[in-house]
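Example record

Each entry pairs one chain with its bound ligand, nicotinamide-adenine-dinucleotide.
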Amino acid sequence: MTIIDGRRIADEIKKDVKSKLDELKTIYGVTPTIASIIIGDNKESELYLKLRDKASSEVGIKSKHYRFSKGVSKEEIIKVINELNNNQDIHGILLQQPIPEHLSLYNLLSNINPLKDVEGLTPYNLGRLMMGYEKIIPCTPLAVLKILEYMDVKLEGSNIVIINHSIIVGKPLSILLLNRNATVTVCHVYTKNLKQYTLDADILITATGVPGLIKEDYIKKDACVIDVGITKTSEGIRGDVDFNGVKEKASMLTPVPGGVGPVTIACSLMNMLETFQNCMELKK
Ligand code: NAD
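Structure tokens for the complex follow.
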């Protein structure tokens, strides 16, 4: 059984991003700068933001924060998004999630210039993904793909079960894997008899935020198990997988922490590189 080392994969991605950015910076003499829009207070978002900013600065990307109270209007946010779209010193825009309920995620994301869309969540970039013209891929699905590629896991023809149907994880990930000719099943909280599906998975990807949901009897022998879930518990950070039980049966497994999390941050840097490149192309 192999425990997948997410930090090692993340370090390789970061090294690659840094060397490409250094090259671009020499050519253009510009420091890549990414704007994060943060609405309200959310402890988990703040933690993620801190980790992402640290990783960005390690590869030479500057982060700027645009903070708003949770009662902010849609008009105010759209005004800032438009300013950032037109600001030549900003090379990428991130809308930190979750956002307050009175705001529509679709509405806000639709206003971000797709060329500056670090999260790959604008309708344009999701549409490209759906059509098989992948350009900027949402960070967590991209992280799962990078892990599977790094571990040399065969995707074509494999039975892949994803437990999550959110717009940041399950929906784009299912398309990404369909684009690679996997047979994909998407399960969620309304799925009846979850185990019936998971037992058939060559690759099981879970992102429910329910600690310990996936036990040894949920997986096929020698399955590859990717645990995206992150939940803070009194015993520390936990994933969805009952690690000690599943590790006896799986062929490979991502730990939490140290699995998908660091790779997601590294993939966010990959997307920043992409949006920076887009902005530099426009300058030509
Ligand atoms: P979400 O609440 O939008 O989605 C949760 C998904 O899990 C839904 O599809 C829901 O139907 C499903 N689900 C919940 N309980 C279930 C159950 N008992 N059985 C089957 N399905 C169930 O959350 P999200 O933003 O998609 O994040 C999901 C989890 O992934 C969270 O734990 C989050 O912290 C984690 N996450 C991790 C990373 C990373 O980089 N590792 C990135 C994003 C999200």
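The chain is about 45% helix and 15% strand.
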